[in-house]
Amino acid sequence: MAFGTQDDQDEVMNEINMTPMVDVMLVLLIIFIITVPVMKHAVNIDLPRASNVPQDAKPETIRLSVDAAGDYYWNENKVTEEAMLLQLKAAATQNPQPELHIRGDKAVRYERVATAMAAAQQAGVRKIGFVTEPKL
């Protein structure tokens, strides 16, 4: 009794056995995973050290106010226009340079505030700000 004919046994197997190839690929993957961290090349560099302590050299803020009558106030002390110009020149030479906050009354003529701004610019003050109150 024959279980098959001669033609059935001579057929060519047309499928590839993938199991040995998968085994080899997994072994290679494990080898690469293990050896890559060992092969890491690093350049030895002596990095500089820095401290992270913040600097406390904070410049003072100068409050220059102009009241409704057009008078100038340097940090709440009344000054003349000439004295204000001298104080602005002295403040411009300080290191770090202080900020100038100009507070103008809403009833004062703009000319008085513009005079203070021009004097600050001529003195060399670089940081000028205006102080206002928000609308409620």
Report on the structure:
This protein has 136 residues and is of the alpha/beta class. The protein has a domain at 61-130: Nucleotidyltransferase, domain 5. 37% of the residues lie in helices and 15% in strands. It contains four helices and five strands. The chain has helices at 6-9, 19-38, 81-92, 110-123, and strands at residues 61-66, 72-74, 77-79, 99-104, 128-130. It has a five-stranded mixed β-sheet with strand order 3-2-1-4-5. A hairpin with a 5-residue loop joins strand 1 (61-66) and strand 2 (72-74). Helix 3 runs parallel beside helix 4 (110-123). The chain is elongated and about 120 Å long. The N and C termini lie far apart (109 Å). The mean pLDDT is 84.
Largest sheet features? 5 strands, mixed
Q: What gross morphology would you assign?
A: elongated
CA-atom Rg in angstroms: 42 Å
State the order of secondary-structure elements, H for helix, E for strand.
HHEEEHEHE
Give a count of the beta strands, DSSP E runs of length 2 or more. 5
- How far apart, in Å, are the first and last alpha carbons? 109 Å
Residue fraction in strands? 15-25%
CATH topology of the domain at 61-130: Nucleotidyltransferase, domain 5
Overall pLDDT confidence: 84
Give the number of helices: 4
What is the CATH architecture annotation of the domain at 61-130?
Answer: 2-Layer Sandwich
The parts where pLDDT drops under 50 for at least 5 residues are: none
Question: How are the strands of the largest sheet arranged?
Answer: 3-2-1-4-5
- Class inferred from helices and paired strands: alpha/beta
- CATH first level of the domain at 61-130: Alpha Beta
| Proportion in helices | 25-40%
